[in-house]
Amino acid sequence: MDYELDKGYIIAQRFVPMNREKTLAENYYILDKAAKELFKEAFIYYDYWESLKKKVVGSGNYHSVKDGERIKKNISSYEMRADELIHICKGFG
């Protein structure tokens, strides 16, 4: 961790694809579970984290608070399918 948001080093990472056919709640559960599993796997190597850490390359993506508010207004329920929200939010940001 670092004092700046998203400015620290990466110890471990994994790509977790979003399933557009699942609900927002189901996708959140999948992502949360993957994050916990990755932390458990990486913690085994805690003594080596200093040598494993990598600096972030590139800028990634960013959503402003304003973007977040616009997106939240379109979420009718966390039981909404992800593809529905993606369709509604096309063109944001």
Can you characterise this structure?
The protein has 93 residues and is mainly alpha-helical. It has one domain (24-89). It is 43% helix and 0% strand. It starts with 23 loop residues before the first helix and ends with a helix. The model has no long low-confidence stretch (mean pLDDT 87).
Q: Mean pLDDT across all residues, rounded? A: 87
Structural class: mainly alpha
Unreliably modeled segments = none
Order of helices and strands: HHHH
Number of helices: 4
Q: Count of DSSP E strands?
A: 0
Which terms would index this structure?
mainly alpha, about 0% strand
What's this, in brief?
The chain has helices at residues 24-43, 49-52, 65-72, 82-89. The chain is an all-alpha fold.
Write the layout of secondary structure elements.
Blueprint: H1 24-43, H2 49-52, H3 65-72, H4 82-89
